C-alpha cells in the first residue's frame, strides 16, 4: 500500500470536528483510496466498529436512487438513526443532481436547470448531514463539477477542505525505494499519479496520455459546455512546452495563432486557463517584487500538478530537464505548505558605453512558510562555470538576509559556498531541506 501519511494525519486531526471533510484534488490522485482503504483501516485500528463505518458509492447503479439529494439525506439519516457515532463516506458526491425545492413544485422532485435559483444540491445535503450530532461526514468527488474551486468556495468556513495532490517525491520514493537518483529521474518523467506508479514505463505513458483525452478534457468540455475541444487541446500543449516561462493571455494567444494559424482572443485564453485551474490540473505562480515586497503585473508562470501529466501532453518527446525540475520544486514547496511566487526585481546598471540602464532580474522562486523565507534557483547542473555564474548572479544583487539556495539535479550533499549561498542536490532538498 502506498502511504499517504500527510493526508491521513489531516483526516485524523479533523475527526469528529463537527464539519464535513471535503476531499478535493485532480482526478485519479487517490481520493477514494485515501478514504476507503487508508482511513478506514485507521478507524478500525482505533476500535471503531465496522458497522459504524458507512460507505456509499454513488457511481454504483445500485445506489442511483440516492443521487437525488433529498433521498440521499433520508437514506443516511435512516442508517444512523440509533444515535451511535457513525463515520459516513460518500464517494462521487458530484453524482448528486440538483432539484428545484419541492415546496415550489407541489412536492415533486424536478431536475433543476442551471439558471434556477431555489434549488437543493449536494452542497445542501453535505452541510445538512454534517449537522447531525452522531455523523462524522467525509465526501469525495472525481470530476470537475465537484473539484472546481467554485464548489469548494460554496462551503467556505463550513467544511474542512483536504487538498489531495498526486504522490509527492517523498511518498513516491518511500514506495519505490532503491537509488534516490534513479527515483528522481523516473519521477521527473512519469510523475506521481498513484495508478501510473504501479505500471511499467510504456503502460505509464499510455495511461497518462489517456487520462487527458478520456477524463480531464471530457470533464472540462462537458462542465463548461464547449462545442469542441481543439483549441483547449492546443492551449494545453502550449502551456506544457512553456512550463516555467512567464506568460500572459496575449503571449499565449500570439503563440496559438503562430501554431494553428487561427485567431483566439485573450478572454478565451483566460477562460481556458481558468478551466484547467478549476480542475486542479494547473497552478499559477505570480510575480513578486523582491524589493517592493508586493505581487505585480499580469505575467504568470504555470505549472502542472504532476510532471507525468505535463510530459504526456508532449508525448514524452525530448522533455526539458530544467522545466521538469522547476515544476517539481514548485509542487513540492506547495505540498510542504509554502507560499510560492516568482521573485523579480529591477536594478540600475551601466552598459558598455557607461550609460545607466534598468535591468530586470528574476529568481525562480521566493518561498515563505511561517518565519522561514527562501530564494531558490533550480538548475540541472553547475559543473559549467558560466552556468553557475548565471544562476548565482541574481543573488549577488540581493542585499538582504533571506537564505539563498541553489538546487542542483545531482546527488550532492548540502554545502555553503564562500558567499553564504546554500548548494544542495535535488533529492536532499525535497526529502529533507524544505520540511
From TrEMBL:
Residues 219-378 form the DUF4143 domain. InterPro entries: AAA_14, DUF4143, P-loop_NTPase. It comes from the Bacteria. SUPFAM superfamilies: P-loop containing nucleoside triphosphate hydrolases. It holds the Pfam family AAA_14. Residues 20-172 form the AAA domain. Signal peptide: none annotated. PANTHER family: AAA+ ATPASE DOMAIN-CONTAINING PROTEIN, ATPASE. This is AAA domain-containing protein. It comes from Eubacterium oxidoreducens.
Amino acid at each position: 500500500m502506498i502511504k499517504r501519511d500527510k493526508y491521513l494525519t489531516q483526516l485524523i486531526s479533523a475527526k469528529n470536528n463537527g464539519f464535513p471533510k471535503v476531499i478535493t484534488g485532480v482526478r485519479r490522485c487517490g481520493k477514494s483510496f485515501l478514504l476507503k482503504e487508508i482511513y478506514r483501516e485507521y478507524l478500525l485500528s482505533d476500535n471503531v466498529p465496522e458497522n459504524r463505518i458507512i460507505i456509499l458509492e454513488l457511481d454504483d447503479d445500485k445506489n442511483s436512487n440516492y443521487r437525488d439529494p433529498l433521498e440521499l439525506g433520508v437514506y443516511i439519516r435512516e442508517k444512523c438513526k440509533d444515535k451511535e457515532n457513525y463515520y459516513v463516506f460518500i464517494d462521487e458526491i458530484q453524482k448528486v443532481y440538483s432539484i428545484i425545492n419541492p415546496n415550489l413544485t407541489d412536492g415533486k422532485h424536478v431536475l433543476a436547470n442551471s439558471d434556477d435559483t431555489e434549488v437543493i444540491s449536494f452542497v445542501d445535503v453535505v452541510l445538512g448531514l454534517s449537522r447531525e450530532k452522531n455523523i462524522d461526514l467525509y465526501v469525495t468527488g472525481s470530476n470537475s463539477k465537484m473539484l472546481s474551486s467554485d464548489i469548494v468556495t460554496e462551503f467556505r468556513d463550513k467544511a474542512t477542505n483536504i487538498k489531495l495532490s498526486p504522490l509527492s517525491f517523498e511518498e513516491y520514493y518511500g514506495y519505490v525505494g532503491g537509488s534516490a537518483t534513479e527515483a528522481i529521474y523516473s519521477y521527473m518523467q512519469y510523475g506521481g499519479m498513484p495508478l501510473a506508479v504501479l505500471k511499467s514505463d510504456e503502460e505509464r505513458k499510455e495511461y497518462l496520455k489517456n487520462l487527458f483525452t478520456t477524463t480531464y478534457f471530457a470533464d472540462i468540455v462537458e462542465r463548461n459546455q464547449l462545442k469542441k475541444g481543439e483549441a483547449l487541446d492546443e492551449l494545453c500543449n502550449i502551456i506544457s512546452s512553456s512550463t516555467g516561462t512567464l506568460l500572459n493571455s496575449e503571449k499565449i494567444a500570439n503563440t496559438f495563432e503562430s501554431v494553428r494559424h487561427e485567431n483566439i482572443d485573450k478572454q478565451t485564453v483566460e477562460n481556458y486557463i481558468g478551466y484547467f485551474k478549476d480542475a486542479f490540473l494547473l497552478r499559477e505562480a505570480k510575480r513578486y517584487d523582491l524589493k517592493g515586497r508586493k505581487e505585480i503585473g499580469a505575467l504568470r508562470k504555470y505549472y502542472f500538478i504532476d510532471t507525468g501529466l505535463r510530459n504526456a501532453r508532449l508525448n514524452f518527446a525530448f522533455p526539458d530537464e530544467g522545466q521538469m525540475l522547476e515544476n517539481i520544486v514548485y509542487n513540492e514547496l506547495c505540498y510542504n505548505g509554502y507560499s510560492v511566487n516568482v521573485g523579480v526585481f529591477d536594478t540600475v546598471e551601466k552598459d558598455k558605453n557607461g550609460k545607466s540602464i534598468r535591468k530586470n532580474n528574476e529568481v525562480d522562486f521566493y518561498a515563505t512558510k511561517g518565519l522561514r523565507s527562501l530564494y531558490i534557483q533550480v538548475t540541472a547542473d553547475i559543473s559549467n562555470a558560466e552556468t553557475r555564474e548565471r544562476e548565482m548572479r541574481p543573488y549577488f544583487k540581493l542585499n538582504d538576509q533571506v537564505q539563498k539556495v541553489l538546487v542542483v539535479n545531482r546527488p550532492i550533499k548540502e554545502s555553503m559556498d564562500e558567499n553564504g549561498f546554500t548548494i544542495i542536490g535535488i533529492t536532499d532538498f525535497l526529502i529533507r531541506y524544505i520540511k
